[in-house]
Structure formats: structure tokens, C-alpha cells
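Full entry
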Amino acid sequence: MLEFIILLILVIFAFLSLNVKNLFTASIILGAYSFLTCVLLSKMLAVDVAFTEACVGSGVSTVLMVATLCKVGFKTKD
């Protein structure tokens, strides 16, 4: 049951990140998406994959996206 709830939240986060106008907010939502993926993988007993997802997905990717947005700007042209 918990896996289904996490999957539902993942789908909601995916749609939110696509529909948000602020790029900073989208990158934070994608970081949360990656973190929930890590939780789901841990629940499925794939701890090694979950650890890799936590390091690369939640950590490095989010930091790189936010650092890039600090250089470029947070708003879209739309």
C-alpha cells in the first residue's frame, strides 16, 4: 500500500515539475521526486540502487540545477 502512495505522489510531482513556470521550483520538485524514488527503492529492498539515486539524483543533480539557475536566472520567458 505504501508503494502505491509513493508512486501516486511521484506522478503528481512529475506533472507539477512540468507545469511550474519558475525553474527553481521545478528543480526543487525534481529533487523531491528523486528523493521519493530513493525511498521507493529502499522499500523494495534495492538499497544499493537507492543509495546511488540518493547521491546522484537527489544530491548532485539538484545542486547542479540550482547552481546553473543562479547563473542563468529563475524565470522562463513565457
